[in-house]
Amino acid sequence: MSSHPSFIDLVLQASFVVQFVMLILLVASVLSWTFIFNKRKELSRSMEITEDFEQEFWSGGELTDLYRKLAGHDIQPEGIEKIFMAGYREFSRMHQKSDISAEVKVESAQRAMRIELSRELDRLDETLPFLATVGSTSPYVGLFGTVWGIMNSFRALGEMKHATLANVAPGISEALIATAIGLFAAIPAVIAYNRFSTRLDRLAGRYELFIDEFVTLLHRQA
């Protein structure tokens, strides 16, 4: 009694087109998981930096001391730290000019922080479009491999005089693996994209709130 072919056997017996589709999906899946782990670590670090900075910012210390501390760090400032430094640096530069109104000084600092905010969000959003693309296209790529494999199976079946289910079943099984791999690549990518988008929106909201609060503080100092 012959044993059923294994998963590896079905992949190796598939046509070149189906194998190529499987390879593309496997590469996409590996890249997706790499981006998922890196992005999860990156967002967690950004949130941790934000919480630590806000706690120190509202502790009542001098803003000048905080700026010098961040500027003197061996570690490059990140996230909300860079937003604060951009705003404070611009405000200090404009504050040295006596012929400029307080409103202009504050607006200039706010504009500098908005620019830094945009750069930071672009950096955090860098790999999310790839996850969205994998999540939306992988099932269709896998389906293409399945349709191609089934088409070949029925073409071969038409050339047989006595066709049975046993003749066509292996070919259909090979083809369906492409759809399975497509779903395997798509589902984690979609879940990760939705989760990271939510966390990024929450982080962006905290950045926006900090800018508004910092601008209010600068108005008092100006």
Q: What do the pLDDT scores average to?
A: 86
Radius of gyration: 28 Å
What is the total domain count? Answer: 1
Q: Order of helices and strands, N to C?
A: HHHHHHH
Number of helices: 7
Name the shape in a single word.
rod-shaped
Sheet with the most strands, sense and barrel status: none
Q: Tell me what portion of residues adopts beta-strand conformation.
A: under 5%
Secondary-structure-derived class: mainly alpha
Number of strands: 0
Low-confidence parts, pLDDT < 50 over ≥5 residues?
none
Q: How helix-rich are the residues, as a percent range? A: over 70%
Q: What distance separates the N and C termini?
A: 89 Å
Account of the protein in words:
The protein has 222 residues and is mainly alpha-helical. The protein has helices spanning 7-13, 16-57, 63-71, 80-95, 102-124, 128-158, 165-221. It has one domain (7-221). The chain is built from 7 helices and no strands. Helix 3 packs across helix 4 (80-95), helix 4 (80-95) packs antiparallel against helix 5 (102-124) and helix 5 (102-124) packs antiparallel against helix 7 (165-221). It starts with 6 loop residues before the first helix and ends with a helix.
